[in-house]
Amino acid sequence: MELTNYVVLATILFTIGATTVLLRRNAIIVFMGVELMLNATNLALVTFARIHGDLTGQVLAFFVMVVAAAEVVVGLAIIVSIFRTRRSASVDDVNLMKS
Amino acid sequence: MTDSFVAPTIDWIYLVPILVVLGTGVVGVLVEAFVPARARRTVQVTLALLATAASFATIVLLWRDPAVQGDPATGGTYGVRVLGGSMVIDPFGLAVQGVVVLLAFLAILVIADRTSTGQDAFAPTAAAVPGSPYEDLARRKGIEQTEVYPLVLFAVGGMMIFPATGNLLVMFVALEVLSLPLYVLSAMARRRRLLSQEASFKYFLLGAFASALFVFGVALVYGYAGTVDLAAVFQVLAGGGTPFADMPGLVLTGVLLILAGLLFKVGAAPFHAWTPDVYQGAPTPITGFMAACTKAAAFGALLRVLYVISLGMAQSDPAAQEDLFVALWVVALLTMVIGTAVGAVQTDVKRLLAYSSIAHAGFILVGIIGFSQASLRATVFYLLVYGLATVGSFAVVTLVRETAPAPERALVDATAGVVAPGGESASAPSAPTGGDPVGDDPSPAVPDAGVVLGEATHLAQWAGLGRRSPWLAGAFSLFLLSMAGIPLTAGFIAKFSAFGAAIAGPDTQGGGSTWVLAVVGVLASAVAVFFYVRIIVLMYFTAPAEDAEGVGVTVVRSRGPAAISIAVCAALVLVLGVFPSPVLELAAEAVKFVP
Q1: Residue A51 domain-assigned?
Q2: Where is the signal peptide (chain A) (predicted)?
Q3: Domain CATH code at residue A61
C-alpha cells in the first residue's frame, strides 16, 4: 500500500479537526477538534518517518503527545472554571466584550 | 548491544541565561510549598527580579564572547550551535533574548506593585467561582496568589528559547512553554473576573488552534526535508536529496502553516481576532508583559524561520519564495489597515492599545519584508522600543482607577463601565445571587476618594488626567507619542529604520517594490497619530467628566516598583529617541545570524 495514502488521510483528519474548531460551538467539542488536529499531525509525522526511514518523526510524535497532554491540563482547567461560573460551555455565551 | 551510550557534550555556558530563568521558576514552585505564606510574596518577587536581572547580565557577558561574535581578526564563524542546533546562540538570538528579559524585568516590577490600595492585580484564588462565599472568604483572609511569579518566569524561559533555536521541534515546545503560563495568567484578574476568564478562554482555544497549525506545518517540512533542523532544511532546499525534494508545494504549505502559528502569536491580521479581547480581559500588568515580550520572542522566531527557508528557496525555487512573500505582503497590509482603522474607533483604553499593538505588528512586518541586514537591525530595535512604550503605558493604566462613594455593588455594576452580563441570572441559575457577578472587589477605603475599584479603562474617564496627575499623564503622553512615531521619541527612529529598510528593499535581489509597503505604512502611521493624539488632547484639554452617579476616577499611588518601571521606560524612550546610535550599533551587530 502506498505510504502517501497515510499522508492524505492525515491531511483529511487535520482538515476535519480544523473545521470542528471553526464551526462547533461547544468548548469541549472545539477542544476535541484541536486534539484531532494534533493527532493527525502525529499520523503524518510517523508516516514521513517511515518514508524517510529515520526515527526523528516518531520521536517528534512523542513530543506532540506530551504537549497535547499539557494543553489538556490547562485547557480543561480554564473550561471548567468558566463552566462553574456560567453553567455553560458554549463558545457563543462567552461574549461579554462584544458590546 | 555493541554500541555504548555516548553522552552528548553540552556547552552549558551558553545556556546560562535561559537556565537561570527556568531554574528560578522551578525554585519558585518549591517556594510555594515550603515558605510560610507571610514571606512568600517577598521571596517570589525578589527571586523573579533577581533571575531576570542575572539573566540579562549573563546575556551581556555572552555578547562579547568570541565564539558568539566571531573573531574579527580571522573573520571566522560566529554563533554557537548547542546540542546540534537545538539552541543557536548567535548575536541575533542573544539580542532578542536581551530585549525579552529586559522587558520582562520591567513588567515584573509592574506585576509586583500593590499600589496604595494594598492589593495586587490578581484574584485571591483564581479557582474560586466569582461572587461565591469561598471567594469572599479568601478575599477577607487576604490570600494572595504568588504562583504568578513562577508562571511569569516559565513564560519568559519559553520566550528566550523561542527566538534562539534552530530546531522546529524545540521551537514548538518553546511556543507551548511560553503560551501555557500566559493562558493561566490571563484568567487571574482580581476584578472583572468574568472578563478575565473569557479572555483566557478565547486565548486558549485560538492559541491551541494556532499551535496545531504550527505543528502540522512542522510535520510537512519534516516530510519534505526529512529533518526539523533548520540548517539541514536549508541544505535540502538548496540541494535536494530526499524523496519529496521535488515537491516544493509541500515545504511551501508547511512554512505557511508555521508562519500562521507565529503570526498568531504576534497578533497580525487575519490572526489578530484574539488580541483586543485578551488584552482587555487579562490583568493589566500581565497584558503589558505579554504584549511586549511575546511579540519580541515571536518576531525573533519568525525571522529565523523566514530567513532560512526563503534563502533556501531562493537557490532552488524562486517562485516558491515569491509566493511566500506575497502571503507576507497581504498579511502586512491587512494588519496595518485593520490595526489603525479599527483602533481609531475604540473607546476603551486597553482595547485601543491592543489595536495599536496590531498596527505595530504590521509596521514591524514591513521592515521584515525589506529582507536585508537593515531590516534585521530595524526589527530588533523596533521590538525594544515598542516593548518599552507598551510596558510603560499598561503600567500607567494600572494606576488610573474608578472609585465609588460607598460599596453599593448594584450601583457599581450598573455604572462602572463594566459590561453587566445580561444573561447572567438566566444562564447561571445556581450561581449565588447575592454575589457580584463581575467580581469587582471594593478595596479598603482611601480617605479622600471613597472606595477604589478596578481600572478606569473607558476613554471618557481619562479626561482631565493631565490636571489630576501631571507626571503620570506626561509619561503616558510620551509613550503614545513614541507609538505614534513623533520625532525625538524612540518610536520615530524605530519606524524610520523599519520603513527605510522596506524602501531600500532586499539586498540580494536589489530594488524591488517593497517601497509600496513603506508608503502604506506611513499613511497608516498618520491615521494612528490621530487616535494617539486624541487621548493626549483628552487628558490635557478636556475637563474631567462629572462623576456620573457616584463613580469617580482617581489615580492610586504606586508603592514604588511600577513607578520605577514607568520612569525607566519613559527615560529610555526619550534617550533612544535623542541618542539612538549606541543601541542601533548594538542592533547592527545583532544581524549576524546562524540558521
Answers
A1: yes
A2: none
A3: 1.10.287.3510
